[in-house]
Amino acid sequence: MLNRLLFLLPLLIFAVIAGYFTVPILTKKDPHILPSVMIDKPAPPHDLGPLLEGKPGVGPEALRGEVKLVNFFASWCGPCRLEHPILMRLAAETDLPLVGINYKDQRDAALVWLRELGDPFGRIGVDGDGRAAIDWGVYGVPETYVVDAGGHIRYRHVGPLTAQALKETILPMVEHLRAAKG
Amino acid sequence: MIRSIIMALLVAVLTAPAFAVEPGEMLKDPALEARARELSKEIRCLVCQNQSIDDSNAGLAKDLRVILRERLVAGDSDSEIKTFLVERYGDFVLLKPPVKAETLFLWYGPFAIGVLGAIGVAVFLLRRRDGSAVNEAPVPLTDDERKRIDVLLSEQDRKA
Amino acid sequence: MIAEIGHYALVLAFFVAIAQVVVPMYGAARRDAALMGFAAPAASAQFLCISIAFGALMRAYITSDFSVANVAQNSHSLKPLLYKISGVWGNHEGSMVFWVLILALFGFAVAAFGRQLPDTLKARVISIQGLIGLAFLGFILLTSNPFERLDPAPLDGRDLNPLLQDPGLAFHPPMLYIGYVGFSLAFSFAMAALIEGRVDPAWARWVRPWTLAAWTFLTAGITLGSWWAYYELGWGGWWFWDPVENASFMPWLAGTALLHSAIVVEKRDALKAWTILLAIITFSLSLMGTFLVRSGILTSVHAFAVDPERGLFILGILIVAVGGSLTLFAIRAPALKAGGLFVPVSREGGLVLNNLILSVATVTVFIGTLYPLFLDAMTGDKVSVGAPFFNATFVPVMIPLLVLLAIGPLLPWKRGNLRAAVEKLWVSALFTVVVAGGILVLEEGAPLAPVLGFGFAAWVAGGVVTELAERIRLFRIPLGDSIRRLFNLPGAAYGMSLAHIGMAVFICGATGEMNWTRELVATARAGDTLTLGQYELVLEKVERSQGPNYFRDMATLKVSKDGVPYATLHPERRLYPVQQMPTTEAAIRSSISGDLYVAIGEGSDQGGYIVRVWVKPLVPWIWTGAMLMVLGGLFSLSDRRLRIGAPKRSKRPAARPAVTEAGD
Fold first, then answer.
1. Is this structure's pTM higher than 0.90?
2. ipTM of the complex
3. Are C315 and A25 in contact (CB < 8 Å)?
């Protein structure tokens, strides 16, 4: 009997391995979630100088006060171009403040880029050497963070924003955070 | 970004050819530089497939190399630097995962399986010795049996 | 038109495979000779159909027929012919066709050379082989059709990834695949034996050469891949513990174990169930190696999301193949009769330990490779498991194997004497002490790693020489007789000695490279001199020119060693415009003591080029060691005992009735 069980063992081990891999794969919904260790931590208090004359940069106090999206972008980044219309629409259709952080970019190129595609941001900070981005835990541009009224990072979206991610995850989260505060 | 990484991985290419550490980044102090090299071999280039920042030419890898060296110069210990990175990027940034609850099986699983296997092999080998699962060592003969053998042997001697 | 013929041939192969699976299996159950006889022609037809399909695809590549989507995506009219050909298996769809081609080739080989096999066993083996083929033909036809057309056809193709345009990588996948697929035969034999309910030495004598052939190709394939990475990726590493590499390394480890346990089945009729299980595991790992790498799942579960259809199909095949075979194992294996007896200290005992260690090594790599996926799937946590982890875990696991490697072959079958064996090794022990002690004294700071590495290499090498000396009774019979014995040794004996000595040579190379590598990174302008150890390098010039499908910057460096002119090296940096991808072509000067490795990078902002120079001691020993293992495999394959094939004709009548009664 014990002997028979021993011969069954390889099958059982395989079943366990296969189960562990199959079930999450079959049920997984959104592959774009990359958990960030920065979630629920205070956003890094960098003082980033303004990109544009007449539009403020991003200081520590700028991240507090209300719920907002912080978007890391660069003119050299292809996917940023892809998500830009979504940001533009967001700026036009909602009252959600958008904070831009210009990542490792040439100032002139960034200016041309914004002039060409439009500027959805309320304030834009310059992160020329990418150090601020590293403190945020940024892998690469574009990345978008939801920051709550207390200045804590609540959510991170890696890669270009999509209408779906916005509708299903980000905007509900913003509503939720606003409600929690009010 | 992630999608493009995945697409890059899909072509099953190991890694893009890279020119990692550049002369400008290197520290003057050879001992410190050597420590920086060793340490960067344990830090993952986050946007690459299984490359350390020491091997990668990705922009982020370069930034991390530079930060790592700055902190070394400032006098940080290796573990302080690792903590600094883990605070921002999680354990994902370490190519050698820390030993903790979630990684116990990773670190000790093979060892445990080795021990179990060794026990199994020991049992198997000892049983294999005489083919019977029950009697592992020969049971000494009883006096009765010994007498019968003596009788049989002496009979045989007589026949011969 | 040709492409449609190829597609049609694949469809035909699919239906032939169905017949190949069903008819012989049914025939074997019914003991119907006519139905069983269907196996061989079916296997041949299968091979023919897939050859036609493969030929059609190859033709599309050679003639740059960009109306075929696969060709347009992976080829380019300017690409050299060799890479047009290797482009066929350089992509997912083509590599699948290549895979089933090899599979069918092995099925055909059983049909052609398996005349002496018992009829039922042969029918069942071919049927199982057909079943594997059926699964993958289905996969190709439903999800990965290589003959899909493009309308309108593009003017030119998108080109093969330039990293893959390299002679080393042109032949790396075929070698690897022949290795992977070769294990399918061990698997089919294992399945057939389970169905028959019988494993005997004759079975092992059939399985072993196929396993050996597969192992030899796999070894060569892995080595080629490693060598390619070394010279092509441009930073001088040769093994990265990358998931893709690990995926090929796991079947190698399991296959090595299988090779050794099959010896015990063959010689002593023992370890049967275990050998069957190893055959299943080895092929399962091969399957995983091929398909999970191709689908990208090994590197990220999210690859499923990119292409769920293929991913699920692969997952399904894996679960059915592995789960099904293990179920059959659980049902049938307990009935296998245990064979010959032996005491723990014996050749058998040594081989059992060898299997234990290799299995634990396989498990270590398996857990390390899949853990990030596993944890991600379970908790969403991300961890990385890279080279530092494997160096810390895999290497210690292998050390007992090296100790054992010298002792095991000196133990006699059935019943050995450990003391006698160890006493024979005194010369070897002395050699080890001298080598390790020498390094301890000569090396500054007496680092542990090289002392251990070279110590173990000396121990293994000493063991191999001792074993050979014992075999030819060196110094115990007249020298002439010993030499005569040496030349009359069976191929398998040479094979073992070569493979084991290859291991020792490999360890030397790996130890030397890992511990003694010296590196110089500098920005140099034309005329600058760089110094590293005994070498002095003068960067003479960097010239821009054009290759067939790339642009290149080629540097000329004059190298002198200890002041004496040594070499002129031409490292290149290439840009492949179609894929917008730069590659480095390192310049390497090899000698027995090591490599001088030079690569150039981009021109820097301040003018001049970044130059990386490495002195990498003993690197050629890595490849030499691996090639000795391959050579060992070939020698062993050449053994008459294997070639003539297992059951001798005279034994056949005796074997027959046993077969008939066993299946009932």
1. no
2. 0.84
3. yes
